[in-house]
Amino acid sequence: MALYSRVSGSVGMITLQNPPVNALSAAVRQGIVDMMHRALSEPEVKSVVICGQNGKFCGGADIREFGAKMTGPPLVPMVHLIEAASKPVVAAIEGIALGGGLELALSCHYRIAHSKATLGFPEVALGLLPGAGGTQRLPRLIGVPAALDLITTGRHVTAAEARQLGIVDEVTDLNAVDAAVKFAQSVTGKSLDARRISTYPCPRPPDLDAIFERAMQQVRRSARGAIAPGTCVQAVHAAVTLPYAKGMERERELFSLLFTSGQARALQYYFFAQRAVSRWSTANGARWDTSKPRPVRKAAVIGLGTMGRGITVSLAQAGFSVVAVETQEQQLSEAKQAVSGMLERGAKRRGVPLAHDKIKYSCSVQAVADVDLVIEAVFEDMALKKTVFQQLSAICKPGVLLCTNTSGLDIDELASQTQSPELVVGMHFFAPAHVMQLLEVVYGPRSSPEVVATAMQMGKKMGKVSVAVGNCRGFVGNRMLKPYLEQAFFLLEEGATPEQVDQVLEEFGFAMGVFKVSDLSGLDVGWKVRKSDGLVSPASTGTSARIRGGSRYSPLGDLLCERGRFGQKTGRGWYQYDKPGGRVAKPDPWLHGFLEEYRAQHGLVARHIDHQEVLERCLYALINEGFQILQDGIAAGPEDIDVIYVLGYGWPRHRGGPMFYAGQVGLDKVVERLEHYQQIHPDVPGLQPCSLLRKLAASGNPAIHKWREVIQKPRSQL
Ligand SMILES: CC/C=C\C/C=C/C(=O)SCCNC(=O)CCNC(=O)[C@H](O)C(C)(C)COP(=O)(O)OP(=O)(O)OC[C@H]1O[C@@H](n2cnc3c(N)ncnc32)[C@H](O)[C@@H]1OP(=O)(O)O
């Protein structure tokens, strides 16, 4: 709702009241309309201030109302009522003015912002455009290039930048509402003719066509199939080429197109999913709201390879004191230099405060004796990690949290090396650890609720989205990756090329196809794991070369590694690169020849494989594993899996995540296609639809938020 009060006799004050962000719900819109009429009708009131309760102007339209039938006054007539008012209306912007909130502010005649406020049009991230006149007013106010930038990227600007751009009239370090009241009094009685943005002509730069062409190219490059950014460009184009009223009609048409799209539904689902994962629960009943995190002031990182360095940077930038340990002098000195460089680049590019003084380097594990939490990031080798955990358990003070950055090893086995297994938890960072937003917090059967809560909170403090997951091979992300990769290898055996598979996945929206990712992360990583699992066999011909444990196996990755083709780092992998460390993947005729030879050796006849088969086999196998993970209680809900895939594995956000995507395709259709492929490939167990997927499909494709009701009480796999 909106409250009305009178300040200093002559200023009518409308206060938006809808915690936590004063979103423009039906009740708030109704309140604004009613209170505007009241302010305009009271003769003593000479001017109006609009502000938000609790230091937040407005977070925009209420996203929770988007799925439901529209009630209350629409936004567009509301902003027109404000702009057309005969008394000056001043927006007092504290905290946030986002989306519809900024549109509300732009309909006011003046805008006063607090210096700490942020403003922006983030609709594009929800699959929408600013549909209450934002695409028509902003270019009129700040010009086409700046408006295109803000509307197509959704980036938030500081009050200082907003002032520079001309979005706000004044910025204050003092109380913005008081400043707005004073301002409102000072403009009482002044003409408002020049203050109604909709009446401004839209600036028409001479190189208009080139500007729009560049903007379209830019969004095509970065949008990876998302439709909202390009539609935003079209709406701004209407502001320049059409009179205001016609431009508003065009904005409405384009908004409706986006509003009803599957992409908008996916992005809005994802918005809430990313927030829902902080309300975690574990298989043995621990929960976010009943578990108190322990205080952590000083942390340690053991092992300063690529991951350890990134983790050190993340911790230091988040304000933790860090002891960074690498036992080899030479490597320690290299790491110190690398970490310093990373901190300096962070300060230069993102304005993160320099944190050199937060880090103490040491060659000795003894240096961690007084820390509150240790993150082990040594080489991915169980024997080595066990030794480190035994050492840590002996050296560290009682009560210290022992965390491992393993990407898939058994947390419980490591916990059993320590005197306090309840204090052990996985913190699986993603490379580069100081950049990637995802953190999988892996609890073992014995991890205490406080320890899970502490790791989750540490992740948040480091600016990450932490997702709690159970302990199993590969946890959630890497476990699902296995069947996906496996299908990609099988497709090569059957006649596809890496380029073809990657193209299909990139057209779907992945930033990189599976083979390019494999080249980037190094083929040797998976090879080492397969070797330690006893999967890599010396026999390279005959049927046994392609069968392990009675199931189909492709040794293609192993064969490439045997030839020293580890990907980008060696300049050769599934693609070729101009030099070791090169980044530009080019098709490799050698690889094509090798695949032909391989097929001939194994009696495989190459066939034409179409787009649909590549997509379905790769994605549905991955999705099926996701359902198995839910069934096993490794992830508490589909949102956890979707957030992990979007933030950690390049799944296109506008497709919501693999579990949301499955729901959009239709669970019955996913089951049917998996069954189809399983009939053709009976030796691939990953194509057998899991029972939870079948159960959900059979119960009539319930909406994703209802899946938890069907998922049985979770239990740990170990
Ligand atoms: C018919 C439409 C016509 C015109 C077009 C207009 C369209 C729009 O305005 S779309 C909305 C545009 N606004 C946004 O996209 C803002 C989204 N919110 C955020 O970016 C952030 O929440 C924040 C910067 C406002 C605050 O961040 P932070 O302090 O980190 O808190 P949280 O993100 O955890 O949010 C707290 C809480 O608030 C809920 N919430 C936030 N914004 C909205 C909103 N616009 N509508 C409804 N609910 C909102 C958020 O979900 C959190 O609650 P839960 O934890 O319960 O999910």
TrEMBL record:
UniProt keywords, alphabetically: Fatty acid metabolism, Isomerase, Lipid metabolism, Lyase, Multifunctional enzyme, NAD, Oxidoreductase, Peroxisome
Q: Name one GO biological process term.
A: fatty acid beta-oxidation
Q: Which domain of life is it from?
A: Eukaryota
Concerning PANTHER family, the annotation shows: 3-HYDROXYACYL-COA DEHYROGENASE, PEROXISOMAL BIFUNCTIONAL ENZYME
Q: What is this protein called?
A: Peroxisomal bifunctional enzyme
One Pfam family this chain carries? 3HCDH_N
**Domain 3-hydroxyacyl-CoA dehydrogenase C-terminal as annotated: residue spans:** 474-577, 614-701
The family classification in the record reads:
Belongs to the enoyl-CoA hydratase/isomerase family. In the C-terminal section; belongs to the 3-hydroxyacyl-CoA dehydrogenase family.
Q: What is the lineage of its organism?
A: Eukaryota, Metazoa, Chordata, Craniata, Vertebrata
